[in-house]
Amino acid sequence: MRSIQLTAFGLDHLHDAELPTPRPGPNEVLVRMEAASLNYRDYLLAIGQLYRGVNLPIVPVSDGAGTVQEVGSAVTRFKPGDRVTTFYKSRWLAGSMRPEWEGADIGGPAEGVMRELACFDAYSLARAPAHLSSVQSATLPIAALTAWQALEQARLTTGQTVLVLGTGGVSLFALQFAKLRGARVIVLSSSDEKLARAKALGADIGINYVNDTQWGSTVYQATGGGVDVVVETVGAATLGQSLEAVRMHGFIGLVGFMSGIEATFSLTKAILKRVQLQGISVASLEMHEQMIQAIEATRLEPVLDSVFGFGQLREAFDHLVAAKHFGKIGIDFKA
Ligand SMILES: NC(=O)c1ccc[n+]([C@@H]2O[C@H](COP(=O)([O-])OP(=O)(O)OC[C@H]3O[C@@H](n4cnc5c(N)ncnc54)[C@H](OP(=O)(O)O)[C@@H]3O)[C@@H](O)[C@H]2O)c1
Question: Does the domain spanning 2-139+302-332 belong to CATH 3.90.180.10?
Fold first, then answer.
C-alpha cells in the first residue's frame, strides 16, 4: 500500500514508500485513510526538533480521518463503514493525564497517518462528526481539542473575554468555541486581511500585532482591566504581552512555543496579577468525545485554509512554514 515515510530528519527526506498491507489484531481497527491535516508538531518532528524517541523511518503526520474497513475480533466500539478520526494522545482515555501514558502519540513516536491503510487500537480512534467531510474531520484531533481544553481549563463562561494569538489552527478553533460559549473574542494577527476574516467568524476586536507591538496594554485598556483568558499559542515572544493583556486573577493557557521554548517574563507581573499559568497539552478521549458532540450539535465547521493532495506533503509543509495560512491545512488522499 502507498505511504509516505520520513527517512531522515529534514523536509527533503519525505519519500513515497510501499508498505505491506496491515492486518488488525484483536483490539485493532483497520482504517482506510482518506484525509490528514497538518499541525506545527508535524513540522517540528519532520525537521528533527523537540521530539525524542522517534525511530526513523516513520510515517509522518498525527491527525487523520477515514473509514473503518475491518475490526479485530474483540472490537465492539466500531464497525466497518464507520467514519473515524485518529485520537493523538492514544493512551489518555479519561481523567487527568499520567506520565506512563506518554510515548504513544500518533505521528511520532507511533506511526502517523500518511498511508492508505492503517491499524489503530480501537481507543486511538474517535467517531467523526456526521456533518463534516474527512478533510474537515481530520482537523479536529489536535488543534480543536487543544483549543477546547484551554477553554475548559479556564472555565470560560458567557460574557467573558478571550484573547487568541494569530489566526492558525488552534487560535481559530479557540475563537469558534469561545463564541459558542457566548464569550467576547479579541484576535491578534500580522495581517489586516486575516483580521477581517476573523471578524467574519465572530471576533469582536482585531489587533495587528506588527503595527501595535505593545498590544498587551491596548487589550488591557480596550477591556477595561484585561481579558479573562489568553490562549497562548506563541510563547517566548508574546508571554510578556499576554501578561499585560490578562486581568487580575486571569488565566493564561500555555499552549504553544512557536517563538522558542525558553521564555523570559516578569514574575512580579504574574504574581501581583495573581495570574493562573496553566500548561495545556491536548486532552483525553472522553473530552474529545464531548467536543465532537458539541461540534455536531452546533454544526460547527472547521476553518480550512487549503487542501493539498497526498503526493503534495512537502508543498503542504512549505505552506505551513510560510505562515500565510488562515486556519488549518488539509490533505485529501483522494485528490
Ligand atoms: N500544547 C498542545 O497540546 C498543542 C496543540 C496544538 C498546537 N500546539 C502549539 O501551538 C502553536 C500553534 O499551533 P497551530 O497549529 O495553531 O499553528 P499554526 O496554525 O501554524 O498558526 C501559526 C500562527 O501563529 C501566529 N503567530 C506567529 N507569531 C505570532 C506572534 N508573534 N504573535 C501573534 N501571533 C503569532 C500567526 O498568525 P497570523 O498569520 O495571523 O499572524 C501564524 O499564522 C504551536 O507552537 C504548536 O506546536 C500545542
Answer: yes
